[in-house]
Amino acid sequence: MKSKKRVGTVGKAIGCIVLLLISLFPIYWLVAMSIRPTDEMRGHISLIPQSLTGEHFSQLFTTEDFGQAIINSMQTTFGSLIISLLVGICAAYIIARRRFRFGLKKPLTYWVLLVRVLPPVAFTIPLYIMFNRIGVLNTKLPVTLACVLINVPLIIWFLISFFQDLPEEVEESAKVDGATEWQLFRKIVLPLVAPGIAAVAMLSFMYAWNEYTYTVIFTRTAANNTVPLALALLNTEDSLTNFGLVAAGGVISVIPITLFVIFAQNYLISGLSSGAVKE
Prior knowledge:
Layout: H1 2-34, H2 55-62, H3 66-97, H4 105-117, H5 124-134, H6 141-165, H7 168-176, H8 181-192, H9 194-209, H10 213-218, H11 227-234, H12 243-272
Helix pairs in contact: 1-12, 2-12, 3-6, 3-9, 4-6, 6-9, 7-8, 9-12, 11-12
């Protein structure tokens, strides 16, 4: 009996290791290609680089102006994230806690979800016409607002369940103690739903950082290119075979997402233990 359990445990461990290696190999290959000299990528490519180089990273910032693309992505991503969280959190709390006349609460909730499930390309024509009329095309503002349009419904739909699961006794006890609506929302409600906010912030950040469609349509100059568009432009006829340059751009583009996820994950864990129900 013990031998069967031991064999099962070893089998599970081997399976987990195999799956881990399979999932991590693309990341390893991306890093290996970015630090491998161009000469080694002609003909047979070895699994382990024979020599290391940083020429691809330096070329990105010296000749490809990749630094400006990172700045643009930071501006559009964090700008849209802040606006989306402010609007989405407040809207989700109102929908979850307030009563609506004529039974409009459920249709409103599904309408919000409908906006999110539609493909982003469905909004390109009306958004293009609207941004063209107000004269903000070829700037970073349309990309930021388009990301807000996509992320706000996700935040609302995701956080409604968190607010609905909060015991009303928490809010009632705070009101009895003299807390105002703003104090109740900021000091009691938000800490209790911090795990949900951290989770939806990660999803919104990743979508805004990887946004490509709206950037291609709403921006026309290299000065406004974001990281996904800058990476796509590296795959031109002239530099199609320069895999190291493209791989270096991919490595750099993954770093901000990784750092943000690590930070949000720590906040997610800390938020699980914050707040308590007042007896």
